[in-house]
């Protein structure tokens, strides 16, 4: 019997670099392996010079971002990747167009994370969305929640500013975050009846890893990592 060719995961990273590092570690930690050879083959592009995604969304200037993402996707395809994952939520605004540009599939972080919440909590539940201004503006998570019979809850303007502070002045800047900002956002979500808060920004995923945030916070990047391990034919721990 011919042995099936091992699947290779292509990663368009660098948005930001710490999130890409965290995503790589997540996949390693989630894979049941007894040796190096049991792990997933990966091609990781750390495209740190990629244009700022939130700025591109706010200004309505997505062409440069799209062109660079397509270039990376085609590079991964030519390099032998079987699937492509992008550990960056805001760039998923272009996921449908990107899928049309290469013949290998993308793993959709938005679909995977919302599906996981639906599976855990059931239908009709309220979900707090913690994301960049760009992701919130495009409504990607709101739409996916509604498609899966969940109720998305967006933070107040004041708390959205706190989230952006955590992302840009904290993680991206390499500075210590103020956990009181998290507490204020969580308090609002709980008062509005949210069963959980979805970490819909990969910088927030980094904080869950380093700070050990409670299970109330569902990590979108963690959902992406799980699906990547499964699609590459490996067993989850």
Could you characterize the architecture of this molecule?
The chain is of the alpha/beta class and 237 residues long. The protein folds into 2 domains: 8-108 and 224-231, 3-Layer(aba) Sandwich (Rossmann fold); 110-220, Rossmann fold. The chain is built from 11 helices and 8 strands. It has helices at 17-30, 53-59, 63-78, 95-99, 109-121, 133-138, 140-147, 157-171, 179-191, 202-211, 220-231; strands spanning 8-13, 41-46, 83-85, 106-107, 126-130, 151-153, 194-199, 217-219. The strands form 2 sheets. The chain has a 4-stranded parallel sheet, with helices on both faces. It has a 4-stranded parallel sheet with strand order 6-5-7-8, sandwiched between helices. α4 links the parallel β3 and β4 (106-107). α1 crosses α10, α1 crosses α11 (220-231) and α5 packs across α11 (220-231). The longest helix is centred in the N-terminal third of the chain and has 16 residues, at 63-78. The protein starts with 7 loop residues before the first strand and ends in a 6-residue tail after the last helix. The model has no long low-confidence stretch (mean pLDDT 94).
